[in-house]
Write a structure and sequence with these properties.
The chain has 347 residues and is of the alpha/beta class. Helix content is 31%, strand content 15%. It has 11 helices and 13 strands. The strands form 3 sheets. Strands 5-6-9-10-11-12-13 form a 7-stranded mixed β-sheet. Strand 12, helix 8 and strand 13 form a beta-alpha-beta unit. Helix 2 packs parallel to helix 4 and helix 4 runs parallel beside helix 5. The radius of gyration is 20 Å and the shape is globular. It starts with 6 loop residues before the first strand and ends in a 33-residue tail after the last helix.
Length: 347
């Protein structure tokens, strides 16, 4: 594995590392013999930087991200971030699910970078690569320190998650929303329990994620739903789309934004292997649908988007769009001096 320094492995030998990734402190690898962490290895590192600039060619509408973890025990077979594990000489399959890099100094490093004169207070997106509320967060508790730093600097931020653990930090989210713009989105692509068990085996069930939306709404924290991914031929039937949008609306989501499955290198191979095992009759259809690259054809994406938006209007919610208020007001009447800012969508 490519680390900054030399790390002693079980065989007694060492490997050189990539100086660009992490600091000079030793990497500590740990395993925990508890049911929730069985089979997972955590590699504790000290990052050299925690605020990352999004590449200019990216489709993302934000410029800066914070990712306290690499790899994700959610084990979603379609996760586009899988390829990033190969940069550490790990594979994009089982290693991505079970070899988790933990940036243990993320909170203190973020606080220092936010206080730098060079930092201009731009919006920071979290959960856009791997989930910052995956199971590891229950042990390492990096997010409370991260949220506290963002709150103390009144720095705008957004979170995208599948993790119910976000409710642990509810007080910090409410406090942050009182001083800066906060956006929260939960990812729920479908509500089919059988599909969930096989395609997102390490995540909380869709109904538990919708409980998060409901709880946030009850505390005055508006929450959108990223309906992602819509999986061709498995979760895109009109009745399935209707059931998902209906459940999202019932949970009190402020918006719903569909995103069709995309299969980038690294994720594509892992997903197709899963498809061949669980739905072999669909392999040829996927090869045709994704013949031109990582994304489904535009006509298919437009069809799904149109259907979801029509259902959203029917159930009284709409897609996230520019111009919607992002600031989450604390309980009580809003102060007349508070202004609204432009919402940044997550796709």
């Amino acid at each position: 594995m490519r680390w900054e320094n030399l790390t002693v492995e079980s065989g007694g030998h060492s490997r050189a590392a990539d100086a660009a990734l992490f600091g000079a402190d030793a990497v500590v690898s740990r395993t925990f013999d508890t049911p929730e962490f069985r089979g997972i290895t955590f590699h504790e590192v000290r990052a050299r930087s925690i605020i990352n600039r999004v590449p200019g060619a990216s489709r993302m509408p934000f410029e800066w991200t914070v990712n306290p973890y690499r790899g994700c025990s959610h084990a979603c077979v379609y996760c586009f971030a899988r390829r990033t594990h190969t940069y550490l000489d790990l594979d994009s399959g089982l290693d991505f699910d079970s070899q988790i890099v933990v940036k243990v100094n993320a909170p203190e490093l973020l606080r220092r970078q936010l206080g730098s004169r060079r930092w201009q207070g731009e919006h920071i997106a979290m959960g856009t690569n791997v989930d910052c509320y995956q199971r590891a967060e229950g042990r390492y508790r990096l997010m409370p320190g991260i949220l506290s730093a963002l709150r103390d600097h009144a720095n705008p931020f957004s979170i995208l998650t599948k993790g119910t653990l976000i409710l642990r930090d509810l007080d910090l989210l409410v406090q942050s929303a009182e001083v800066t713009d906060v956006g929260i989105s939960v990812s729920v692509g479908f509500t089919d329990p059988e599909l969930w068990r096989t395609v997102e085996p390490g995540t909380p069930a869709p109904e538990r994620r919708l409980d998060v939306v409901r709880t946030l709404a009850d505390h005055g924290l508006g929450c959108g739903v990223l309906m992602a991914p819509v999986i061709p031929f498995l979760s895109d039937h009109p009745a399935q789309l209707r059931a998902t949008v209906r459940a999202i609306a019932a949970a009190g989501a402020t918006s719903v934004t569909p995103l069709v499955l995309h299969l980038r290198p690294g994720a594509r191979e892992w997903f197709m292997a899963w498809l061949a095992q669980h739905h072999p009759y669909l392999v040829r259809r996927y090869e045709r649908l994704y013949a031109d690259g990582s994304y489904a054809p535009k006509w298919y994406q437009r069809r799904i988007t149109r259907q979801v938006h029509e259902l959203a209007r029917e159930y009284g919610i709409g897609p996230a769009r520019a111009g919607m208020p992002r600031r989450i007001q604390p309980p009580g009447p809003p102060e007349p001096t508070v202004t609204e800012s432009t919402q940044l969508t997550l796709i």
